[in-house]
Every structure is written in C-alpha cells, then in structure tokens.
Specification:
The protein is an all-alpha fold. It folds into 4 domains: about 130 residues; about 80 residues; about 60 residues, no CATH class; about 35 residues. The protein is about 65% helix and about 5% strand. It has a 3-stranded antiparallel beta sheet. A hairpin with a 4-residue loop joins strand 2 and strand 3. The chain starts with a helix and ends with a helix. InterPro entries: CSN3, PSMD3_C, TPR_PSMD3_N.
C-alpha cells in the first residue's frame, strides 16, 4: 500500500485544482506514512517534492498552517533517516533549504512557517548546547519552576488556571472550556492542600460535571475533621512527660495545651470555636458592618436634586440683592425731590 500511495502522489498536483485540497490530502498521506511505520524514504521523497516543487509556487495565506506542518514532517523524516544510518548528514544538508524557506516565509509574512522553520534551524544547535551544559538549580525543593526556580509549581498552576477562568468567555458561550478549567482548578486546589469553596459546586453549568470532585472534597473535609478531632483530645495516660496536674497547668500557661479536664482525664490542644468568643468578635462585627453597608440602597439621582435646589437658592439670592439695590436707588431719588421742594 505504501508503493501505491507513493505512486498516486508521485505526480505534481494539477495547477487548475484547489491548492488547499491537494496540500491537505498530501499532508494526510504524510501523517499516514509516519504513523504506520512505513519506509521513511517514501515519506521524505513526498514531503521533499511538496516543499521544493509545489509550495514555493503558491503564495496563499490559507496554505500557511499546512505548509508549516509539511515542513515539520519533512524535517522529521530527515531526522529518522539520519538516525537509521542510511543517509548520514541529511539533516545538515536540509539546513540550507530551511534557511531559504525561512527567508521566503518572512517576505510573504507567513508566520506559521516562519516560526516552524526557525525552530527547525536552531533545533540541532540547541540540542548540542543542552547536552553539553547543565541548567543551574536555583530551587531548594522539588516543587520549583520558572523564574530561576523560585516560584512553586503549584502556585504557578493555580495562577494560570485562575487567569484562564477570569479571561474565559461567559459560561453560556463556552461551557466546555469552563468545565475543563474548573476541573483542573479544583484538582490543583486539592493538591495544594486547600478546600475549594462550596459555592463553586452550585453553579448550574458546573454542578453536574463537578459532582465527582465535590464528593472528593466532602471526603477530604470529613477526613481532616476526624484527624483534627483525634489530635485535639488526648487521654492523659497516652501522653508522657507530665506526671502531675501542676505540670499540665504549666503547659497550659505556655500555650501548647489549651485546657485540662481532670474528671474525664483528658486534655485538649484546641479550644471550641464560636462566632461570639473574644478572638473572633471583632472580625465578625466588621464583616457584619461591611455586609450591611453593601446591602443599603441609595436613591438614584439624589445629587442632581441637591444641585437644582442650590441653583434655585442662588437665583433667589440674586433677585433679592437686585431688589435691594433697586430700592436703595429709589430712596435716594425721593430724598433729592424732597430737598427741592
């Protein structure tokens, strides 16, 4: 079948036909040859015929993604042939044609082919450089990545998924993207040791797809509560180091132990948490105050009414001042007439 396929594609495509159709079918044939483990020579000859005799004569922007893919598989075939030892130096001979095609893609503003060819040209040199050097390890832990290894991987993943959710289209337009990003975001939150907010699982678009994740979150919360309760109450006979009540009182005074129940012979390292106890009283009141301010409703355009009343008051003041001036002038004229009589 490889021989038949190569024979069918041996002739150049008809110039009168659509170039996109011919290029796409040729690309499918190349992918088939490389995926089926066919002889690399046949795929190399087919891709070489396309990049040398067909693509340079068609300057169409619709062919740019296809041309970039063909160049990639062409270089891949050359790499496989060079690794087999049947064609040594084939990759080096391909560099000159790749540089020429890169200049042509630059002039044609073919960004896809330009980026692909630039990677192919620099690939061998970059591989040699990486094989002979070692990247400095700035991170002190296994979870370090980017920026010199100083940023934890989990924080970077959390930030990227957060940006994806913030910049994503609305859920009504792209529900699939929303569901996928939120699934990964919940997984990252759990791996980072945080419990996602319960309101996230109540969103109508995410409720069904996040149901398995919600069950995992519930199981994690229950396990954490059980572990916390198990470590917060310990029997006195299970703890060594303090043989008297005075020793436990000293431990309470310095902080590790919160309270001691002599009758039940049990100590606790965690006190009961309530809303109205002194440590949480002030934050609760501040939160209640902020919520009350947010819930207030203010009348619309109230400031415009105040401006209108201020303008009316100034108008009345001007009228009163003009009347006073007019009255003073009239009084002065009457005095002059009286003197004359």
């Amino acid at each position: 079948w490889v021989t038949q396929l190569t024979h069918l594609l041996s002739e150049l495509p008809d110039p009168s036909s659509q170039a996109e159709h011919e290029t796409y079918l040729s690309l499918l044939a190349i992918i088939l040859l490389i995926s089926r483990g066919a002889p690399n020579r046949s795929g190399f000859e087919l891709s070489h015929r396309l990049v040398t005799d067909f693509l340079p004569h068609h300057n169409r922007r619709s062919l740019d993604p296809l041309a970039a893919k063909i160049w990639f598989y062409h270089s891949r075939f050359a790499e496989l042939l060079q690794q087999d030892g049947s064609h040594p130096g084939l990759w080096a001979n391909l560099r000159s044609s790749s540089m020429s095609a890169h200049r042509t893609a630059r002039l044609r503003r073919d960004e896809d082919s330009e980026a692909t060819l630039l990677n192919l040209i620099l690939w061998e040199q970059a591989d040699r450089l990486v094989s002979k050097t070692e990247f400095p390890d700035f991170g002190k832990t296994e979870a370090s990545v980017g920026a010199g290894g100083m940023v934890p991987t989990g924080q970077v993943a959390r930030w990227l998924y957060y940006l994806a959710i913030r910049r994503a289209p609305p859920a009504q337009i792209a529900p699939g993207f929303w569901q996928t990003t939120h699934k990964l975001f919940v997984v990252v939150e759990l791996l980072m040791g945080d419990i996602p907010d319960r309101t996230l699982f109540r969103v109508p678009v995410l409720k069904k797809c996040l149901q398995p994740y919600f069950e995992i979150v519930q199981a994690s919360k229950t396990a954490l509560q059980t572990i916390s309760l198990a470590y917060s109450r310990n029997k006195l006979k299970d703890i060594h180091g303090c043989e008297s009540d005075q020793g436990w009182c000293y431990q309470i005074s310095i902080g590790p132990v919160r309270w001691l129940n002599v009758n039940l012979k049990r100590l606790s390292t965690k006190e009961s948490v309530g809303v109205y106890i002194p440590p949480l009283e002030n934050p609760f009141c501040l939160k209640l105050y902020n919520k009350s301010i947010e819930a207030m409703r203010f009348p619309l355009h109230q400031h415009s009414k105040e401006l209108a009343s201020a303008k009316a008051a100034r108008g009345r003041e001007r009228e009163l001042a003009s009347e006073i001036l007019t009255g003073d002038d009239n009084d002065g004229n009457d005095d002059d007439l009286g003197d004359a009589f």
